[in-house]
Amino acid sequence: MIVSTKGRYALRVMVHFAMKGAADYIPLKEIAEAEGISQKYLESIMTTLSKAGFVDAVHGKGGGYRLNRSPADYTVGSILKLTEGSLAAVSCTSQGPAACSRSTCCQTKPMWDRLDAMINDFFEGITLADLLEDPQQLKL
């Protein structure tokens, strides 16, 4: 599993919002400058986060984005799943049309399923609030 720049940047932006608090809307330009992300790329990330209800958006003068919940209510897993689509380590554990045709007879599939569960549990066990504390001391 390789997390794309979209996933990593979305996580950085969400941490940025968590650090700023939910009182004020933060303009896109300010976020882009603070995080060193191109404003054009950030627009697509913010659209994804906004449509999924992760942030509130206000357009026009005085507008911007902000969290609409407490940082403790956002998991790293939920943010990465939104932007990445899946956290599966290998494609054969995917569901739907990409599912492996050998999944019912594959001797290694249980191992991959277990790895996927570990990855999911790991990221779902970390919130934005946890990242605001000393990230070196995360209870891993």
**How helical, in percent, are the residues?**
40-55%
CATH superfamily: Winged helix-like DNA-binding domain superfamily/Winged helix DNA-binding domain
Number of domains: 1
- Termini separation: 19 Å
Which regions contain 5 or more consecutive residues with pLDDT less than 50? none
Task: Summarize the main sheet.
Answer: 2 strands, antiparallel
Number of helices, counting only DSSP H or I runs of 4 residues or more: 6
Quaternary organization:
single chain
Give the overall pLDDT as a whole number: 89
State the CATH class: Mainly Alpha
- Approximate strand percentage: 5-15%
How do the helices and strands follow one another from N- to C-terminus? HHHEEHHH
**DSSP strand count:** 2
Large-scale geometry: elongated
> How do the strands of the widest beta sheet line up side by side?
1-2
Which topology does CATH recognise?
Arc Repressor Mutant, subunit A
Q: Nearest-angstrom radius of gyration?
A: 17 Å
In terms of structural class, how would the helical and strand content be classed? Answer: mainly alpha
CATH-scheme architecture: Orthogonal Bundle
Structure description:
There is one protein chain. The protein is mostly helical. It has a single domain, classed as Orthogonal Bundle (Arc Repressor Mutant, subunit A). 48% of the residues lie in helices and 6% in strands. The chain has helices at 5-20, 28-35, 39-51, 76-84, 109-124, 128-132, and strands at residues 55-58, 64-67. Strands 1-2 form a two-stranded antiparallel sheet. The longest helix is centred in the first third of the chain and has 16 residues, at 5-20. The chain starts with a helix and ends in an 8-residue tail after the last helix. The mean pLDDT is 89.
